Amino acid sequence: MNWILALPELVLALSGLAILGIGVLPKRNTHFACAMAAVGAFLLAAALAIGAPEGSAFGGQIVSDAFTRFAKVLILIGAAAGVVLSLDYNAREGLDRFEYPVLLVFATLGMLVMVSANDLMSLYIGLELLSLSLYVVAAFNRDDERSAEAGLKYFVLGALASGLLLYGSSLTYGFTGTTNFDRIADALSDPSKASSGLVVGMVFVIVGLAFKVSAVPFHMWTPDVYEGAPTPVTAFFAAAPKVAAIGLFARVLGGPFGDLAGQWQQVIVLISLLSMVLGAFAAIGQSNIKRLMAYSSIGHVGYALVGLAAASEAGMRGLLVYMAIYLLMNLGAFAVLVAMRRQGRAVERVEDLAGLARTDLSMAVWMAIFMFSMAGIPPLAGFFGKMFVFKAAIDAGLWTLAIVGVLSSVVSAFYYLRIVKVMFFDEPAGALDPRPASVSFVMAASGVFTTLFFLYPAPLVAAAQAAVAALLG
Amino acid sequence: MFVGAVFFPLLGASIAGFFGRWIGDRAAQLATVICMVLAAACGLTAFWQVALGHSSQTIEILTFVDVGGLEVSWALRYDTLSAVMVGMVTLISTLIHIYSVGYMSHDPSRPRFFAYLSLFTFMMLMLVTADNLVQLFFGWEGVGLASYLLIGFWYEKESACAAAMKAFIVNRVGDLFFMLGLALTFWTFGSVEFSTIFGSIDQHMDATFAGFRAYEVIGVLLFLGACGKSAQLGLHTWLPDAMEGPTPVSALIHAATMVTAGVFLVARMSPVFEYAPTALAVVTVVGASTALFAATIGCVQNDIKRIIAYSTCSQLGYMFFAAGVGAYQGAIFHLFTHAFFKALLFLGAGSVIHAMSDEQDIRKMGGIWKKIPVTYAVMWIGSLALAGVPYFAGYYSKDFVLEAAFAAHSGVGTYAFWCGIAAAFLTAFYSWRLIILTFHGTPRADHHTMEHVHESPAVMLVPLLVLAAGAVLTGAVFAPDFIGHHWEEFWRGAIVNAPHNEIMHHVHEVPEWVPLLPTVVGLSGIALAYILYMLAPSIPGKLASTFGGVYRFLLNKWYFDELYDAIFVRPTRALARVLWQTGDATIIDGVPNGAAALAADVARGAVRLQTGRVASYAFTMIAGLAVFVTMLAFGAAR
Amino acid sequence: MIAALSFYAFAAILIASAVMVVTSRNPVHSVLFLILAFFNAAGLFLIAGAEFLAMILVIVYVGAVAVLFLFVVMMLDIDFAQLREGFQRYAPIGAVIGAILLIELFMVLATWRFAPEAATLRLNPMPSGVTNAEALGRILYTDNVFLFQACGLVLLVAMIGAIVLTLRERPGTRRQSIAEQVARAGTVSVRSVPLGAGLKEIGIARPPSPEEEEPKQVEHHHGHGGHH
Fold first, then answer.
1. B620 in contact with A, Cβ within 8 Å
2. B376 and B487 share a domain?
3. Mean pLDDT for chain B?
4. Please, which residues 561-620 of chain B have a Cβ atom closer than 8 Å to chain C?
5. 8 A C-beta contact, residue B424 and residue B402
6. How confident is the model at residue A120, as a pLDDT?
7. Searching chain C, which residue's CA lies closest to the CA of residue A104?
8. ipTM
9. Quick one: where's region Disordered (chain C) (predicted)?
């Protein structure tokens, strides 16, 4: 029993419990201390994840390899940034309760379990740990109807998705007699055994995962939840869990169901097409910037899935690079959203950014960089993400996907540029409140990455390459 | 030095852009101008060394992307073609910077302006010194971005914002084709490096794509991309609107940089185009049509800058059909001379506008030539060069282009030749219409404006005089090198003419009347303008009312904007609205207003609405699931 | 023979009561049918030789979960008819899609067959010489300890969630503070009370009120200060 492999998870679990203890016992407000402890735990876990040895543990229920390392580090970065973004916001909105960092720690733990899962059971439990924590934090601002509504909606639909995932898992178990990924792959390596029952089970699993990444047509919760949840929670939602769920997608479809590529490719192509198109068009009419970002993230998931649809090594690599870039630039954009406060109140309309260039030039410039990057304008990081996945799609002969992707990124450039236009060319709507240093830090770090990625993309691409090699064996 | 020519503008842009607020307007201006002067010095030296001193080279900067068989290094390619462009761009951009110091002296946000201007120059230099298609694309997009910023510089003006958006979106359409062309190039050659592509031209001669020869498809796609940047027929609509930017911007965009990018691309990819006859025919026809089409519109416009803008459009048409018949050298030569006299015309127009207190309508000018003699003189020189009057710069290049079209002896070549001749006549006509209406006759501006008419300050006049010298001399000085008998030593393979393409020799063997004809029609165009607007100013009005339909057709620019609005803009907007309404307003039925509704109607409404909506969400999910299961269950192996 | 008969009896009742759970109009009846279903499932477990599971099912599900359901249903007074109203609108399309899915699942079922190893697994429900509970324990605490612990965290998160979303500290509520009670000294004394004596005789003992205590404390401190 090689429990060392699960060290990052163990550390997070124990620190979660410890933080809970720190938070409960003292009489005064311990939110800040707990949040800092959570960030520390994330960084420690990231260090451990980088140094983790390779192999599988707990009877093959979890694995540790280059892929888990890649995904875990990304997730932990996203989670740490999510906590940092929440510090000031929560204090101002009266949400500074210590349960918040505790829940985020457990959510992150769930994500780590998800990406290192090598068994349908550990997959499900990781997913459920993540989901349950997210349901609660979505409704964390319980006195706000929108937040409560968001949490409830997310819970009901998430339960449905979990049910579908479980049903798919049980079908798979029924037809292969095992839940272990390696043995499912073995069972499928003989094509004659690939019965329609397995295919249907796989579709159910895909649907359950597609809900988590909010791919069309399982995206309906996204705009409502993104809008309703407190902004730092939305930032958290849009970053780390997306990476974890996409990573899980890659793991499940590339590993156990790798031999059914011909079948799942059709589903992923369709999901990806729909997501790209909807993400591009539905965002145009939005005036609430969080809602707009929700549609934007739906579109981005569509682009990322283009890489998965290619079902090739290059495609998977593109997928991972895309998610890394998406994570980092999205954190930056949400840092701007978190910083949008006027006279002590959080504001979230696109018009509230009007004339930002004249009231807070540096924030406007960062935001413009993120928007241009999301629109895929070179030489910003977002362009490279798109380039990798589209190239993989073209190599795999998926011309439709690549062309629709390029077209929809042209359409989506419209609403990204609208934000830039509002910031730079509209009459100022009054200055925003000064932003806290923590938010500026996230914004600047993410901005620097987005801008300078093109100078030295090699490390990220090499890490993704190693991860894919581990994934596809 | 070679690196300096490219990166000094970036340095200037960074100083003015990031530190402009701290170091003040003057320092920011000074920094950008000094950087540009240094860049121009480097650029001209590079031109001297590379083009005239015959020493091409490539300078590695760093490796850009190196993954999955796509290796792109960042290098500056200096051959004659690049050197010509670098020298021209840095020189003209420097003059425009200096001019802007005077022109923009009343504007509150000068550091920003200068930063954009330098950034724009940098991007253009990146484009022309690119060593591979990806780097070229980087510069290409960067130019688009910078032009968006510059055209929308006066963002208080609604029309400026709209024009900037329009320029950006129309350019994106072109870029889309460029990207496809780029992808196809990579697919065909397995590389985006120019040296690799040009070296393996012979091996991929028979490659096909979707049933067509790959070279043809690449050629057409790249040309469509070039159309966007170079405002050729169909994608030209952004160019006249781009006049909303400050006048130096117009000069920079229309004379030296952005619009010439397309012509440059075609010349750069000449090895591929040489083996794509159909693509070349397309280039010729579109170029020739644009030349004539834009000239017709130019005849009836009333905004001084728009007239010049349409003339740019028309001159770009000349360049394209020159490239189309295989005389890339002629295209680049015309580009080169055109840069000088078009910059001159724009800056001269800026000087007029400056003098007339920001009036741009030539119907409200007139009779001011005595008050601004220097401007008047340089406008004459610019127009003479534009009309191709002998011994001015335009004469050499335009004549060569037309002779090349004639010498092609092909159907499309002949079409281009006659279109070019007609356009030359119209060009001369509208140039003199502009001069006469602007400077002569009775003053039509109000008394107050007329009192304030004044010659521009020296900082604006000096660039004008330099450009005027260029407009007079560049043709005669450089013609032997660019297109004359020394052309082979001069270009040294920077532009490739296939063995079967002997147009550069044929050009010198055309009949006597061919070189004479452009001059004759040019002079007759001037004469017609003189008669109509100087001697009998009542005739044009009568003509306009007699041929009302034609006049309105031309005045409304052949209704291209309206056409695009109907075909593209409105359906997109409608589609967006439909998606928004069904996807959001109907199904979700108002979480945007849901919050408000909830606050007002907390207890009862909230629960009802929520369950209803969640059910429909869940329903969508199940429906999606059913679709996927059905899709696979009937396609799966049993 | 008897085992087979009772299996079919339990199974039939189980399915019938499951149908009633979904269809009955009265929510309380639904919960009662659910309890019936649990009992029958426990019976099935017994027949299969899993007596520990059978007992757990009865204790946990019937004893705790279902009773909790009953409480919730009775306390909340949900108008199910009203909920169904919204459902009716989607019923036709929903039925069509549901039917399609169902048909497909039946088709899937038709292709189902036992895995080769399944037969051996079924014959050996547990290693010989080991009790039912111990076999379960081995699986839970040894083979699947990772998942078991993770499940524990899921439950912890559920608990935290419930507290976060519902617990409100209202001003003015008096709550027991054990630490304070334990730390209290000198204010409570244990007395032996004579038999037969009423309040009239021994009087009511009250803790000293804080107002009285304050000055005392101050005095005490002063005393200390003086000594040092």
1. yes
2. yes
3. 79
4. 608, 611-612, 615-616, 619
5. yes
6. 93
7. C157
8. 0.92
9. 201-228
